[in-house]
Amino acid sequence: MTANHILPTLDAYDLWAASYPPAPHNPLMRAEQRAMLEQWPDVAGRRALDLACGTGRYARLLAQSGASEVFAVDFSAAMLRQVSAGSKVRANMMQLPFIDGAFEVVISGLALGHASDVRRWMGEIARVLKSGGVLLYSDFHPEAARAGLTRSFKDERNRSFTLPHCCYGLRAQREAVAAANLTLEVVHEVRVGVELQEAFPGSDSFYRQWRGLPLLLIVRARK
After folding, report:
1. Quick check: 98 and 133 in contact, CB under 8 A?
2. Model confidence pLDDT, tens digit, residues 152-178
3. C-alpha pair distances (Å), 107 with each of 50, 57, 161, 214
C-alpha cells in the first residue's frame, strides 16, 4: 500500500502537470465534461476565459467552439506549459489581471474548491464578465466531500497525493451568485450510477456503495 501525501495546492498541481492529460482522463472527468457541454453557452465570436485552466482542455474547446479570443489562466506555470490553445496567463483566480467586463464567457472546471472565499471568487468573475455574459463552472459536490471522497492522483513513482479542497455548500454557492449580482440559470448534479455509469476497475462495488450520491455540481449563471 502506498502512503498518501497532502501537498499545498500549487505544489500538487506543479507535480501533477507532467502527467495531467489535456483531455478527460477518467470516467469522472468524462462525465463532468459531458455535463458541462450540455450547458455550454454560445461562444462563437465572443471573448472567453478558461479560469484555472490546468492543461487547457476547456481553452481548447472554447477555441473549437469559435470564440473570437481565448485566455487560459492558471497559477501553476507547469500546468500552463501544457496548454495548447489561447493566450496563457499565470495569475491567481482570486485576483485576475483583467479590466472590468473583459469577457463574455467564463468557463471554470473543478476549481471552486481551491478558492479561499466563494463570494470573493464569484465577485471577481462577475467583475470581469460583461453585462449579459455567462459563467459556467463545475466543482466536486459538497455531498461527496461530506461522504469522505477526495480528489487525488498518483505520480510516476506511484505515490498518492490528495489535493486540499474547500467545501462550499449549495446554499453558500447560491448566495455567492446572488451577492455578485448574477442570475442563476442552471444547477445540475452528476450522480453515481445515474449520470456517471462508465465501468472501471472496481466500479461494481463503487456503484453499489455510492449509488445516487452526487459527485459533481454544474452551475451556469448570467450577468
Report:
1. no
2. 666 666 677 677 678 899 999 999 999
3. 5, 11, 26, 21
At 123, give phi and psi (nearest 5°): -65, -35
- Joined together, the cell numbers standing for residue 156 give 510516476
| Beta carbons of 39 and 196 less than 8 angstroms apart | no
What's the pTM value of the predicted model, to 2 decimals? Answer: 0.91
**Fold annotation for 4-222:** Rossmann fold (3.40.50)
Q: Phi, psi (5° rounding) for residue 172?
A: -65, -40
Structure confidence by residue, pLDDT tens digits, 97-136? 999 999 999 999 999 999 999 999 999 999 999 999 999 9
The domain limits of the chain are 4-222
Question: What are the backbone dihedrals phi and psi of residue 171, each rounded to the nearest 5 degrees, phi first?
Answer: -65, -45
Closest CA to 135 of 195, 177, 93: 177
Residue recorded with cell 490553445: 85
The DSSP secondary-structure symbol of 127 reads: H
Burial class (CB in 10 A: 0-12, 13-18, 19+), 169: middle
**Side-by-side strand order, sheet with 129-140:** 87-90, 69-74, 47-51, 103-109, 129-140, 214-222, 183-191
| Range list of β-strands (E), 115-201 | 129-140, 152-154, 160-162, 183-191
The burial of 24, by beta-carbon neighbours within 10 Å (0-12 exposed, 13-18 middle, 19 or more buried), is given as middle
Please provide the size of the chain in residues.
223
